Structure formats: C-alpha cells, structure tokens
Amino acid sequence: MRDIAQSLGKADQREAGEPASVAIGPLRLRGRAILAPMSGVTDIGMRRIANRFGASLVVSEMVASDDYVRGHEETRLRAEGAGVDPHVVQIAGCDPYWMGEAARLAEASGASLVDINMGCPAKRVTGGYAGSALMRDLDHALGLIRATVSAVSIPVTLKMRLGWDEGSKNAPELAQRAEAEGVQLVTVHGRTRMQFYKGKADWAAIRNVRSAISIPLVANGDCTSAEDARAMLAASGADCVMIGRAALGRPWLVGEIARSLEGMPADTPSAAARAEAALEHLDTLCRSMGEHAGLRHARKHLAAYADHAGAQIPRAPRTGFVW
Ligand SMILES: Cc1cc2nc3c(=O)[nH]c(=O)nc-3n(C[C@H](O)[C@H](O)[C@H](O)COP(=O)(O)O)c2cc1C
Known about the structure:
By secondary structure, the chain is α/β, with parallel strands linked by helices. The protein is 39% helix and 14% strand. It starts with a helix and ends in a 15-residue tail after the last helix.
C-alpha cells in the first residue's frame, strides 16, 4: 500500500497520521470521508446520523433548482439541514437564472456550501439537459457554474463523472475550467455517464483530474471500507473519499472510514447505539415529513438497518436504484 501522504493532492500536502486539514474556502473539514448525495436516500435523518457519527461532510439529495426556488414542498424537505453541520445543498439544473437563485436560497437557508450536480446519469435529468448531460457542453456547464458562484458568498463545489462516454472523458477539462470560475472542490465518480453503475469505478482515471487542479479533489465510486478508501486515495491522488451506497443502513460507516484514515480507532457502534440511530432516523423522518410519508420513506432505511444487523425480515423484493 502506498503511503497516504504521497497520494494527497496539492491542497493538502502533509504527513500520514497528521489530522486532516482539507479546506474548502473558510471551511476546514474534520476528516477525509464524505457521505455522497443520494436522491431518496440521504434525507435529513440519514445525514444527521452520519454527521453525528463523524462523517467529514454530508451532502443533501439533489434538488432541482427551479422547484427549490418556487418553494416545492418535497424539494424543500430534501434541502433541509437542521441538525447538520456543515450543511451542504446540492443543486441541479440547466438554466443559469434558476441555478443562481437556488444557490442564493440555499445560502439564505443556512447552507455552508452549495454543490452543483453534473454527474446524474438518469434519463429524466439528462433529458432536461442537466446532470451529466452538461459534460457534453462545457461552455453551457461553465455558464451555470459562473451563475452559481457569483450568486453566493459561500463556497461552491462541483460533482461530476469521468465524462459522458468512453470517448469523451473530459472531467479534467471541466474541473480545470470550474476552478478558474471559482469552484472550490471537485468530486469525481470514476465512471462515465454511459456506464451508469456497470463495471467497477476507475479510481486511477480520477488522477487525471488531480493533475489538472489545485483545489481539493474527492474520489467517488465503489468505496465500501477503510481499505478501499486507502486504495482509492493512493490510486487517484484525491484528498478525500466519498461513500454512497455502502452507507445505506449504516451511516456510521463514513465516520468509521474517516477515523481509520487518520489512524484513529474506528470501531463500529454497539448494537444498542445502532438500534437507537435507526429509531432516531425514523423519528426524524416522521417529524420532518409527517407520520404517513415519514414511515413510508423510512421503510427502505429500516430494511437496510436490519440487513446490516443480520436480521431476517420477510419483505417484498427490492427494486433497483433509479440512479
Ligand atoms: C439511489 C441513488 C441516488 C443518487 N442520487 C444522487 C444525487 O442526488 N446527487 C448526486 O450527485 N449523486 C447521486 N447519486 C450518485 C452517488 O452520489 C455516487 O456518485 C454513486 O452512488 C457512486 O458512489 P458509491 O459507489 O459509493 O455508491 C445517487 C446514487 C444512488 C445509488
């Protein structure tokens, strides 16, 4: 295994074992493991728990910029941040006006960071010329970034894939141009849009973005353990890792990985603490969405918590992820 310090990016040259000091503008992260934004998954309940158990950063579900500004209730709930610190709202869209307004609203609502989504592969999003479709038109993408950055005084970050397809892996160019426009951190999922979730994320390909930028870089895709995180940092040269699907049913995993990367004890919480967290998650959702919607929304989380506890609960087969 390569020395982690060797693999760190320009933004954070330090010896392995020293406390993490990745900075995003005025914000100093307390570690190097981030909970990924996941629509329908990283609701306020999950983000609070991940935050409490030591995730270095948690990101809201993507919100459509126009819906958010128009006050769409479901969208407002997705962007909720009470009890989460620092609070990050991820916005998506294809119109500079709505992106700027959404960023302004996020800042006014207490967000510490705004993240822009240019990685979503879903047809309903790319069809509206948002998400990863923006990687096919960098000039347009840059216009959205400019509108977002100039609307707020908090840092703006950007999440993307390697590119649209095998023949157009332009993440380094997008990242470099985004940095020139004032973006302060870039996350790269090591797959192209056309790969959706197929195959294995290419952590080494993320290194091409490392050499293109000096702002912090986050590597994402298929990180399920502290061992993965170390290998991912070494292969990509990134400053941080981002964990998505592996945290479903165990939001504390992100904090465990963060502590392990700093050479600290990274024990899994006790069964009692995990059960308490699952109930807290349910309670948060019921308070935030109302009992009926909260319970309905909590089902997939409760099933996943039970899976990780080794419980055998009969239930209908799970449908695949939309993303
Ligand atoms: C159900 C689901 C919803 C997702 N929603 C979002 C989203 O709202 N915004 C975003 O940037 N990425 C979203 N993603 C992508 C994840 O953030 C992440 O890039 C991807 O899952 C790869 O990381 P992983 O292998 O650790 O899961 C979603 C992924 C899944 C599985």
